[in-house]
């Protein structure tokens, strides 16, 4: 996603405002106990097809976008405007459910709809809620982790998902829809992995999630 965001961010950052159409505070589609702003496209771009989902997993990503201002709102605006197109999946766009930074959470898909964030037509997209943790250098990644852990805990309660099914993007093998090319497993969420695999960093993050349950 890093390359696509590099292309989309400059124009978007130039037009960002504190508030805008399509943004609102928490509703029934957001988990209780967590302050979530909604920025969900109305039946277009990443939602131009209805793709229902009964979530069984939560998949954690990091954005690999480090510029100033590349926070949750910026990523949500990109999704709302259809800024992340894809020629390799069946939907034509990349999309996920929540973007999280050190100060805010934005929701871009209802949690009962499939995203395109993990593994093309695999189980990671068909059955998991996708969360992108922002890595903008003007934010605090420690605070982003804490906010994400609290969001995950609430989503687990809301959808009866066990901690064992909170996974990283690295969990899902990526086989491209367009040509069947196997891209293997991605080193994501990189800051929470040890050499691309689950290790002490990931276990510490899961303990942080557990502390909010």
UniProtKB/TrEMBL annotation:
EC identifiers of the protein: 3.5.1.28
Claim: Mitochondrion is one of the keywords in the record: no
Keywords: Cell wall biogenesis/degradation, Competence, Hydrolase, Signal, Sporulation
Residues making up the signal peptide according to the UniProt record: 1-19
SUPFAM superfamilies in alphabetical order: N-acetylmuramoyl-L-alanine amidase-like
Broad enzyme group: hydrolase
Highest taxon of source: Bacteria
Pfam families, per database record: Amidase_2
Catalysed reactions listed for this entry: Hydrolyzes the link between N-acetylmuramoyl residues and L-amino acid residues in certain cell-wall glycopeptides
GO biological process per UniProt: cell wall organization; establishment of competence for transformation; peptidoglycan catabolic process; peptidoglycan turnover; sporulation resulting in formation of a cellular spore
Domain N-acetylmuramoyl-L-alanine amidase: from-to ranges: 45-181
Keyword Secreted belongs to the record: no
Transmembrane segments: none
This protein's name: N-acetylmuramoyl-L-alanine amidase
């Amino acid at each position: 996603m890093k390359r696509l965001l590099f292309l989309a961010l400059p124009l978007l950052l130039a037009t960002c405002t504190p508030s805008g159409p399509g943004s609102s505070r928490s509703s029934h589609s957001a988990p209780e106990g967590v302050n979530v702003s909604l920025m969900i496209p109305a039946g277009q771009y990443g939602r131009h097809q209805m793709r229902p989902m009964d979530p069984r997993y939560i998949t954690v990503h990091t954005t690999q976008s480090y510029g100033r201002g590349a926070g949750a709102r910026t990523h949500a605006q990109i999704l709302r405007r259809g800024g992340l197109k894809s020629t390799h999946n069946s939907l034509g766009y990349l999309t996920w459910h929540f973007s999280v930074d050190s100060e805010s959470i934005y929701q871009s898909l209802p949690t009962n709809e499939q995203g395109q964030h993990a593994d093309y037509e695999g189980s990671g997209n068909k059955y998991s809620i996708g969360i992108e943790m922002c890595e903008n250098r003007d934010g605090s990644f420690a605070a982003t982790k804490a906010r994400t852990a609290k969001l995950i805990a609430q989503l687990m309660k809301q959808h009866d998902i066990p901690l064992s099914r909170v996974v990283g993007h690295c969990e899902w093998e990526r086989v491209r829809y367009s040509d069947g090319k196997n891209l293997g497993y991605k080193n994501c969420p990189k800051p929470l992995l040890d050499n691309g695999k689950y290790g002490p960093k990931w276990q510490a993050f899961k303990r942080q999630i557990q502390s909010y349950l």
